[in-house]
Specification:
The protein contains no helices and 14 strands. The chain is mostly beta strands. It is elongated, with a radius of gyration of 22 Å. It starts with a strand and ends with a strand.
C-alpha cells in the first residue's frame, strides 16, 4: 500500500480505504491504482469508480457559528467573530480567535456591528497575532446601544 499527496492530487496503490483529513473515501476497488483530485468542490477520479468517492465523503474542517472558522483545501484558514458589547468611549478589547493559525496570519479586517445605534462609532485593529487580535473603539458620541467589533481573519 502507498499514498502520495501532491499539488496535482492524491495518488494511491492497493488501498481500500483512504482518509487524509481533507477527504475520506471508502470502498475503493481492491488493488486499485489511481489519482483523486479536488477541484471547485468536486472530486475527479482516474482509474477508480466514481461511485467509490462521493461529494458527501469530502469533509472540510469547519465551525459554522458566530465565532467560527473554515479550513480550506491547501491549508488557508478563514476565521470570523465578534467581541463583546461596549458602552464606553475609546475602549480596547482583545479577542481570541476560535483556533490559532498554525503558521502565520495574513490579515485581520475589523468592522463595527451595532443594534439600534446611530452613533458615530468605529473599531480599528491595533495589533494581531496567530491567536488573537486587539481592537480599539473610537466614538464621537457613544450611547448605551449594543456596539461591538466584528472581524474576519485570514491565515494558514
Amino acid at each position: 500500500m502507498s499514498l502520495t499527496v501532491s499539488a496535482s492530487g492524491i495518488t494511491f496503490n492497493d488501498l481500500t480505504t483512504l482518509s487524509t483529513g481533507l477527504i475520506s473515501a471508502t470502498n475503493l476497488a481492491p488493488n486499485s491504482v489511481g489519482t483523486l483530485q479536488l477541484s471547485a468542490g468536486a472530486v475527479t477520479t482516474n482509474k477508480i469508480a466514481l461511485s467509490a468517492v462521493t461529494a458527501d465523503r469530502i469533509n472540510l474542517v469547519t465551525s459554522l457559528s458566530s465565532n467560527g472558522y473554515q479550513i480550506m483545501p491547501g491549508g488557508l484558514i478563514m476565521q470570523w467573530g465578534r467581541g463583546s458589547v461596549q458602552t464606553s468611549t475609546d475602549s480596547t478589547q482583545t479577542v481570541t480567535f476560535p483556533i490559532p493559525f498554525p503558521n502565520a496570519w495574513f490579515n485581520v479586517i475589523c468592522s463595527t456591528q451595532a443594534t439600534g445605534a446611530t452613533d458615530d462609532t468605529w473599531w480599528i485593529c491595533t495589533s494581531f497575532s496567530t491567536t488573537q487580535a486587539t481592537f480599539k473603539q473610537e466614538s464621537t458620541n457613544l450611547s448605551t446601544h449594543n456596539i461591538y467589533p466584528a472581524y474576519i481573519a485570514i491565515g494558514y
